[in-house]
Design a protein that fits this description.
Elements (H helix, E strand, L loop, with lengths): L1 H18 L17 H4 L7 E11 L2 E6 L2 E6 L5 E9 L5 E7 L10 E8 L5 E10 L14
């Protein structure tokens, strides 16, 4: 799942770089000054992803943080929540086992990958939440800059 998200992210970067060669006014369907929520709430865009450390659960809302940025995302009765746990087998091999969980199973500090939809109102609504690690995964901490 994370690999798919990374591939989609990289493709998006290349598409974005290609679009920067043309002024926004020359891109069909884009009007300068159009709020981002309008195109993002289009039925053409199925969803977008957010990744971060869970900082709070308040009612049906979760808040993710990454560095100084934070984002609050609403959930509803249709939000699917899955935890991926590493399980070591009798043969010594480690596998990843998905387990359906509820919002109340999420804990502050969990790392989440959230598939979300931007509603026409601008509200971010979680379609699915994947708890990728209950503690800091190696990929969540960027490497130190070279000296």
């Amino acid at each position: 799942m994370i690999v798919v998200a990374v591939v989609i992210f990289i493709i998006g970067i290349f598409i974005g770089l290609g679009l920067t060669k043309s002024p926004a006014s020359q891109i069909p369907g884009i009007t300068i000054g159009t709020p981002a929520k309008n195109p993002l709430s289009s039925s053409v865009i199925a969803s977008v992803f957010a990744f971060g450390k869970l900082t709070s659960v308040s009612g049906k809302n979760i808040t993710l943080a990454s560095g100084p940025d934070s984002l609050t995302i609403a959930t509803d009765q249709n939000t699917k929540i899955v935890s991926y746990q590493q399980v070591k087998g009798a043969d010594g091999k480690t596998t990843v086992s998905p387990q359906n969980i509820t919002l109340s199973d999420l804990k502050t500090g969990d790392y989440l990958n959230v598939n979300l939809k931007v509603l026409a109102s601008g509200t971010l609504n979680a379609v699915s939440i994947n708890r990728v690690a209950a503690t800091s995964p190696a990929s969540a901490t960027p490497p130190a800059p070279p000296k």
